[in-house]
Amino acid sequence: MRSALYLIPIGLLISCGQSSVRFSEEASSTEAAETNGYPSVVRVIVPDGSGLCTGTFISPRAVLTASHCTTQIGTYRILADWGATFTTREVVKLGNGSVSDKSDLALLLFDSNKADPKANQVTPISSNVAVGDKVTLVGYGCNNVNTMAGIDIKRSGRNQVYQKGDYIQLATPLKAHTAQKILGPDNLSGTCFGDSGGPLLKANTQGNWVVGVTHAGSWNTQVLFSLYTDISRSENWTFLENTENSYGLYLTHPCAEPGTQLSQCQTSQALTGIVGFLHMIFAKMLFWLGL
Length: 291
Fold this sequence. Notes:
Layout: E1 6-7, H1 10-18, E2 33-34, E3 41-45, E4 52-59, E5 62-65, E6 76-79, E7 85-88, E8 90-93, E9 106-109, E10 134-139, E11 155-160, E12 163-164, E13 168-173, E14 199-204, E15 207-219, E16 223-230, H2 234-247, H3 266-289
Parallel strand pairs: 1-15
Antiparallel strand pairs: 2-11, 3-4, 3-6, 4-5, 5-9, 6-7, 8-9, 10-11, 10-14, 12-13, 13-16, 14-15, 15-16
C-alpha cells in the first residue's frame, strides 16, 4: 500500500535560516514506541486501497486529514482502533494539496455520528500554538525513512515546536542510535511516510487539542524537519469554522474551554447538530435534482 508524505528538498528549509539547528534538549536514547492510545487518531484508506494516510476525529461526524490525501474521487475507508470501519464519499477540502500548499486540510464527513467523545474518540481543535510549545505527534507512518518499513502501525512521540511560519515545524536529530528511524527519539520525534494527515497535539488541562496536521517532511544525514499545516492560520481556521456552521459539526468544542460549564451549551450544541444535518440533506437533494 502506497503511503503519503511530501518530501521537500532540505536546502529549501536550510535557506530559511536553519543551517545550524539547535535542539531544545539532548535526544533520548529511547525510540518512539507503538501505542494503543489516542483512539481519535485513525487510518485513512484512499479509494481502491491505493494509499494510506492518518486522520483524526475532531467531531463525531468528521475526520480531519490532509488535502493531498483526498485527491481521488471515490469511497474513503476510516479504520478505527476500537474495531469499527466507516466509509464516506463526502469530502470538503480547503487547499489544493500541493507541496507548497499552506492550507493542506480536508474533512471526511459522515451523515451520522461515528465517534463517541465520552470514549475519547474525538479530539477538539485549538488555534493556540507557539514556538517552544511541547507537542505530541501520532501517526500510522513508517519508522525508517530509507526503507519505509513499519507502515500501518500507530506510533506516538514528543517534541517541541521548532519554528512557526508558513508551517509549524519540528526538528529531529538523526544520530547513530536512531538509524534513520522515525518517529526517532522519544522526546524529539518526527514524521515518516503514512503520517500525512495525522495530528500535532498540544495538551492543556482538559486533555489534548489538535493544533496542526502533518503536511510534509525532509531530511539529510543529520536532521529531519517535519512540517505541519497550522490550523491557527486565519484562512485555515475560517475554513474549519465555515464547515462547522454549514454541517453542524461542532468542531471547536467551546464547552471544553476553561471556565465554561457543559450545561451552558448542551442545548445550542444539539440545535447546531440538527440544523447542520438538515442543511446537508437539503444540499444533497438539490444536487440529485440538478438544481
